[in-house]
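Side project, low priority. Logging it here so it doesn't get lost.
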Amino acid sequence: MRLRQSFWARLGPQDTEPPGAVVERVRLAMRCAVEEHLGRDAEALQRQLEYAQDLESLWYLRPELMNAIAAHCGEAQARNCLMGLTALFRDHHPGAAASRFGRL
C-alpha cells in the first residue's frame, strides 16, 4: 500500500476544478483587467472575451489585451498585467509553462 500511495503522491494533486470553472475564472480576470486598465474604451475586446468559448480562445486573446493595455497605460504595466493573467493558465494550458510573460 505504501508504494501505491507514494506513486500517487508523486503525480501530484488531482485538478478538482472543473474545466468550465477554469474558463470562467480566467475570463473574469481578463475582463476585470480590461475594465481596470482601459475602462469603456475597449467594448470590442470585452465582447471578444465574453464570446470566447474555451480556454484556448482566451489564451489567444492575451496578445490583443497586451497591445491594448500597452497603448493605453504603457508596456511595463501591460507586462505586469499579463504576467498575472498567464499564471491563471498554468496547469490548464500547455503554452503557459513556456510563456515569456510568465518569466518576466
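Brief comment: The chain has a mean pLDDT of 82.
Revisit when time allows.
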